[in-house]
Amino acid sequence: MRIDIGDVRLYFDVEGAGLVPDGATMAERPVLVALHGGPGADHSLFKPVLGRAAEFAQVVYLDQRGSGRSDVGDPASWTWERWADDVIDFCDAVGIEDPVLLGTSSGGWVALTAAHRHPERVRGLVLDSVMPGPAEERLAVFERLGGAEARDVARRYWDGEDVQDDWERVCLPLYSRRPDAADRLARIRWNPDVVEHFRHTLAARFDPWPHLDRVTCPTLIMNGEDDPVATVSAARRLAAALADADEHILPGTGHGTFREAPDHSIGLLRAFLARTAS
Description:
CATH topology: Rossmann fold
CATH architecture: 3-Layer(aba) Sandwich
Structural class: alpha/beta
Number of helices: 9
Largest sheet: 8 strands, mixed
Order of helices and strands: EEEEEEHEHEHHHHEHEHH
GO molecular function: hydrolase activity
CATH superfamily: Alpha/Beta hydrolase fold, catalytic domain
Number of strands: 10
Strand order of the largest sheet: 1-2-6-5-7-8-9-10
Strand content: 15-25%
Distance between the termini: 32 Å
Pfam families: Abhydrolase_1
Keywords: Hydrolase
Helix content: 25-40%
């Protein structure tokens, strides 16, 4: 499905009912708006695991502008602020009053930006593998997982060198240890222009730290112990900076806890939503 929010149409999909029978009444379930990473990937990153949350929530998958099946829009509008405002505009357009925003990787950057720009509109945050740690810490994890070659390729890639093939061959496989990782990556409808815009411009422009006092909603932070980009120290620093945050470090887990440790992650999500509903 697509919906017009002004200058672009955004693609979204839904799993689970928002209202369910409960005796003589209809009970309202929380609404999760799932924001994919990349940036420049699409909502397929969440499927099929996040569909399990449809047992206790309504799950809304959103392709951000420039990504997936949404309109590309003006490249000048590929910013954290515009993507965050798009989330609120989308919720207004479809009538979601108090969403819980769930963001994986850079989707968490969008969710966090929406929460500090529109604190009155966000019921809760679920941040999965979100905050990048210091470069040296990230390189050390790559080296621990993939040796000296992985460290060297990652350093050159982050320095802006044209090593895309080496990055995809050496480093990307270290994000995940699951046997379905290749199929999952193949399903993504990428926009490589957004990926390059992130690498050369947007990554350096993300700085939520001065605004975190405006994030007032409950927040669930999940991070893999073996994540080579969103590091454990950064997750702990983020949790300490927020007013109401639960932090969970998942052992033996790579980038994207819902994909890497689905049972554990869905259990944490269920408990978090129960807490935010009370």
